[in-house]
Structure prediction request, 288 residues.
Amino acid sequence: MSNTSNNDCNLSTSPIGIIAGGGPFPITVAEAVIKSGRSVFICALKGFGDPALEKYPHEWVSLGAVGKVLKKLNSAGCHQIVMIGHVKRPDKSLIIPDLGALLNAKSLLDIVREGDDSLLSRIASFFEKKGFCVLGAHELIPESLIGPGPFGKHTKSTKNERDISKGFEVLKILGELDVGQAVVVCHGHVLAVEAAEGTDEMLKRVIKLRKDGVVMKNGGVLVKGLKPNQDIRVDMPVIGPDTVELVADAGLSGIVVQANGVLCHDRTTVIKRADELGVFIEGRMIPG
Prediction:
């Protein structure tokens, strides 16, 4: 895994800038920063960010408004930034560049021209070149990382081990191709792999396979982890309560994630629902 945060990131007491996409994690990060005694300034992405972000110092920004983002972060005195939250690929016609984007056109075109591989990492590098230190969310909310071992009262059976091993083998291949971060394996068969739709939509496909009778046997596991050389500052996998609910609905036995490589949103609820639904969750250390 890759993490290019430098030591200077640990020295600043200035506000932390949060470039916020969708989902709950931008708020989780903001609350953790404030609890630590520091302040935040949020650039919330229009169409993605949660309206609840408005209770913090913030500015709503459009995709493509690079100049506005840089200006607002600098005006707020931010030296460190976090990029957190999901952003679905938008229609390119809806991305209207501002003057700042045009002034940085060459750098931004270089980012896009190279394709999807490591796209977020290249965006992070762009902000670094503008003088910002890019932090990973896991550095601010380390308690959200899933460590090694069981995560709840249920544990895997010996029958699950074959599926778990195969899942990580498939993930390694998928990761090298930059395909996805999750796979579902049941009784030695790969039922689904994650692509651009994300883990939840992949699990919904498995639910449909069960309902349609394509997959007759219950059991199996969701396996989730990092791609090789993934920049964990900007693209760390996540599970949450919805993941547990969908795993149960799909008739799967459990979830196995790469230990210290996956974030958990709302740990208390995740463990509670997993215990109630009979779903095991485990963090697995991956060599290398």
